[in-house]
Amino acid sequence: MKYILVTGGVISGIGKGIIASSIGTILKSCGLRVTAIKIDPYINIDAGTFSPYEHGEVFVLNDGGEVDLDLGNYERFLDINLYKDNNITTGKIYQHVINKERHGDYLGKTVQVVPHITDAVQEWVMNQAKVPVDDDKKEPQICVIELGGTIGDIEGMPFVEAFRQFQFKAKRENFCNIHVSLVPQPNATGEQKTKPTQNSVRALRGLGLSPDLIVCRSAKPIEMAVKEKISMFCHVEPEQVIFIHDVSSTYRVPILLEEQGIIKYFKQRLNLPIDDQPSDLLMKWKKMACRYERLLKVCSIALVGKYTKLSDCYASVFKALEHSALAINYKLDLMYIDSTELERSTEAENSVKYHQAWHKLCKADGILVPGGFGIRGTEGKLQAISWARTKKKPFLGVCLGMQLAVVEFARNCLNWEDANSTEFDPDTKTPVVIDMPEHNPGDMGGTMRLGKRRTVFKTENSVLRKLYGDEMFVEERHRHRYEVNPELTHCFEEKGLKFVGHDTEGNRMEIIELENHPYFVGVQFHPEFSSRPMKPSPPYLGLLLAATGTLNAYLQRGCKLSP
Questions:
Q1: What per-residue confidence (pLDDT) applies to 437?
Q2: Where are the alpha helices (DSSP H) in 138-187?
Q3: 445 pLDDT higher than 70
Q4: Could you tell me which residue ranges the CTP synthase N-terminal domain spans (predicted)?
Q5: Are both 2-291 and 295-557 of the same fold?
Q6: How far apart are CA 215 and CA 16, in angstroms?
Q7: Which positions ≥6 away from 64 have C-beta within 8 Å?
Q8: How far apart are CA 55 and CA 145, in angstroms?
Q9: CA–CA dist 71, 67 (Å, integer)
Q10: Sign (positive/negative) of CA torsion 350, 351, 356, 357?
Q11: What are the angstrom distances between the C-alpha of 230 and each of 79, 187, 192, 214?
Q12: What count of Cα atoms within 13 Å lies in the side-chain half-sphere of residue 148?
């Protein structure tokens, strides 16, 4: 097993996740089996109870793990399926060690950060690196490990110490450290500064790790003189300094790395049994990146949510839309609309914001209402759904978006004025969306209906079934505590809102479709989590096709994309 540790310096959010994913993609393109581990130094057990404004979206895995969004990057880039133990947190490690202490495994010993916590980290990494993540179920050959945060953070120290020890346990030919740093360019001088990188590498060396590669992030391409300066002052060869400047799309990053000789370096440094040239997989990435940059036709989608100030809050949704737009040769124009700004209360408080939000919604080619929690902004989402339904605008509702579509239909088509979800009004007289008691035992963490579940189509006359390739069932990832009330579904079906997909027992409503509408679809699951750059998610693809007016032609071609 070969281990590649990716650390970061100067600032967090520098792009370690994309770089780790890109390195994995390059090695996979050389015919190697690659897995990935993300280490988050926070004390939370998992990411499930975070606000999206803390660390971005919560990504859900097949096994129900609620994890950091970087695991979503790994899955999309490498086309693998990871497990919750591929996300290590300080909370998980300490819980693991404390449980062993209570069990008596350390009887007579003083349990300390060194060696017990550091040993637990190394043991976890070695065990998880062996777990198959590809469809062929073979053991991986390379494990890419991303250490979250920045070097010097107090909470990350035990992990840095663990890998200082681990480099000797694994042996030099099996362990490699890549350090990602920032090269800022102040506007006042326009000069690219190397001092932050020098200080960051010095701090890393002081903790016992020496970088094999220094990846320098910058706004603009870095000059050769800067590369030579970093090489000299950071004690590495010039070819060990890699530059990644801001690019038009993340699909470019593996290509930039490959152009700077990273395959040849890894082959020598880790003694890998590979050719110097990448395979067809990286050629496909090159073609995809070039195609992305040449797109001319634009499709605009309005994303109506309440976490719109930070794009990472809907990272997987954005990627799923982007994959679908690329598949049909359109450039995506994603307009984020804060759902509270569509509400009447905003018109009274700030009429300019209100009218700007509605202007965006009205000019969009399609409307998407993603998942979420809490009552704030729900009235605005209901307004957007009503607009999509009455104006025949293509619409996709995901999780809460589907539940609100049911509430909107109940209020405006069934004339149940007090229809609501028990999440927002526990005492509502018409609970069209109810909680699932078995998935809400009191604790908030990890108690939802999580992970991959089967959805069975109950009719052949379903747009989504055709988009999924006319399969009898689909398996997608879930994350919810509430569901559509199955006792009231017949009332909706009589008026044209069809529940075309159920769970395996037939009790849980999973998919809705509205009759006599170009595309009005809601799904209880989160299809964005399984979207891949070369395999777009069918519900999102359907939204883009409908928004561009090409859905019917696509279905008539037997769900084949035009060349």
A1: 66
A2: 157-170
A3: no
A4: 2-272
A5: yes
A6: 9
A7: 84, 446, 450, 451, 452
A8: 18
A9: 7
A10: positive
A11: 34, 21, 11, 9
A12: 18
Place of tokens 């809907």: 314
Question: Could you tell me which residues come within 8 angstroms of residue 157 by beta carbon, excluding any fewer than 6 positions away?
Answer: 207
Q: Which residues, other chains included, contact 251 with Cβ-Cβ below 8 Å and sequence gap of 6+?
A: 285, 288, 289, 292, 533
Q: Which of 161, 216, 399, 408 is catalytic?
A: 399
- The DSSP secondary structure of 278-321, one letter per residue, reads --HHHHHHHHHHHHHHH---EEEEEEEES-TT-GGGGHHHHHHH
Q: Which residues contact 538 (CB under 8 A, 6 or more apart)?
A: 464, 467, 468, 469, 527
Q: Three-class SS of residue 353?
A: helix
Residue 109 DSSP label: S
Q: Give the start-to-end residue ranges of the domains of the chain.
A: 2-291, 295-557
Known catalytic residue: 478?
A: no
At the topology level, CATH places domain 2-291 in Rossmann fold (3.40.50)
* Per-residue pLDDT tens over the stretch 9-25: 888 888 899 999 999 99
Separation in Å, CA 29 to CA 77, 132, 254, 270, 404: 11, 17, 10, 16, 43
**Residue of 116, 323, 502, 526 marked active site:** 526
pLDDT digits 0-9 by tens, 347-365 = 888 889 889 999 999 999 9
- pLDDT (average), residues 466-476: 91
Residue 558's SS3 state is coil
Positive or negative torsion for Cα 69, 71, 75, 77: positive
The candidate with the shortest Cα–Cα distance to 71, out of 148, 126, 8, 7, is 148
Distance spanning both ends of the chain, measured CA to CA: 41
Which segment, 185-189, 279-283, 456-460, is predicted with the most confidence on average? 456-460
> Residue 511 in contact with residue 464, Cβ under 8 Å?
yes
Closest C-alpha among 285, 304, 490, 302 to residue 379: 304
399 is catalytic: yes
Taking phi over 0 as left and psi of -120 to 50 as alpha, with beta for the rest, 134 belongs to beta
Q: Which residue from 397, 343, 404, 332 is spatially nearest to 370, judged by alpha carbons?
A: 397
**CATH topology classification for 295-557:** Rossmann fold (3.40.50)
Based on the number of CB atoms within 10 Å of its own CB, is 262 exposed (0-12), middle (13-18) or buried (19 or more)?
buried
Residue with tokens 């300019």: 352
Question: Which residue reads 């520098």 in tokens?
Answer: 14
- Tokens 């120290």 map to which residue? 157
Assessment of whether the complete model's pTM goes beyond 0.85: yes
Q: How far apart, in whole angstroms, are the C-alpha atoms of residue 419 and residue 491?
A: 13
pLDDT band at 438 (very low <50, low <70, confident <90, very high): low
Q: Which of 174-178, 274-278, 424-428, 469-473 has the highest mean pLDDT?
A: 174-178
What angle in degrees, to the nearest 10, is found between the helix axes of 157-170 and 118-129? 60
216 Cβ partners below 8 Å, 6+ apart?
A: 181, 182, 183, 197, 222, 226, 227, 230, 241, 242, 243, 244
Is the pLDDT at 563 greater than 60? The verdict is: no
Write the CA distances from 499 to 394, 449, 478, 510, integer angstroms: 18, 19, 17, 7
The token pair at 428 is: 């509502």
pLDDT at 560 over 80: no
Distance (Å, whole) CA 314 – CA 309:
10
